[in-house]
Amino acid sequence: MNVLIYDNEEQIGVAAGNYMCGQVLQKPNSVLGLATGSTPLKPYGQMIELFKKGAIDFSKVTTFNLDEYVNLDVEDVNSYHSFMHKNLFDHINIPEENINFLNGNAKDLEQECADYENRIKEAGGIDIQLLGIGSNGHIAFNEPSDCFQRWSHVVELKESTVKDNSRFFKSIEEVPTKAVTMGIGSIMQAKKILIIALGKNKAQAIKQLINGNVTPMCPASVLQFHTDVTLMLDKDAASLI
Ligand code: PGA
Questions:
Q1: 132 CA → ligand 1 middle, Å
Q2: Ligand 1, atom nearest to 161 Cα
Q3: Which residues form ligand 1's pocket by a CB distance below 6 Å?
Q4: What tens digit of pLDDT does each residue of 91-134 get?
């Protein structure tokens, strides 16, 4: 695991955005696995910046997002669909038809998850997967549990995750408690992984990710078994390693 520690979020944003764009420069038709949350905001800002400067072209890129809430309208400001459009897709030139999300409003969610895995496979697999990490060690919505869930699946969110995510909603009661998410196997099949953590509340999970046992109780710990992981941390997130 390549562990890089930066002074602040701005520096990580530039480094991570450049890393993602570097992949696209090397392979213009790259398949990018994308994440939501506060962590990727600055990296997405840097990707937009490079696009506006004319340094990068995303017209051949395909994307797959990690997860989506269940039973939340895609147009709702808190859907991950809305988040991605507002913070990245509306500002760069990825063709709409190349953008993929799990549909949390699908009638048959199990079928939707199986179809999503097929779509990833048909696209040739994910070249680089961007990840944040939950304070409880989750990646995407793979919550701590007794076993690793391999492929995309429906999940009940943990109380800690609902609480963490409630900052985006008017009240905690509005936070969906169910989501659809890529599985640990879907993530581990990405050729490269870039994981970013900011802030003291991630320090314990980062310690476990780097130095702990590989256990589904800290889903991110499985990344120890991946051969191409870059971990970008600010000083607070790195404070326990
Ligand atoms: P955050 O979420 O970027 O909003 O901290 C990360 C995650 O829960 O995976």
A1: 5
A2: 8
A3: 37-39, 132-134
A4: 999 999 999 999 999 999 999 999 999 999 999 999 999 999 99
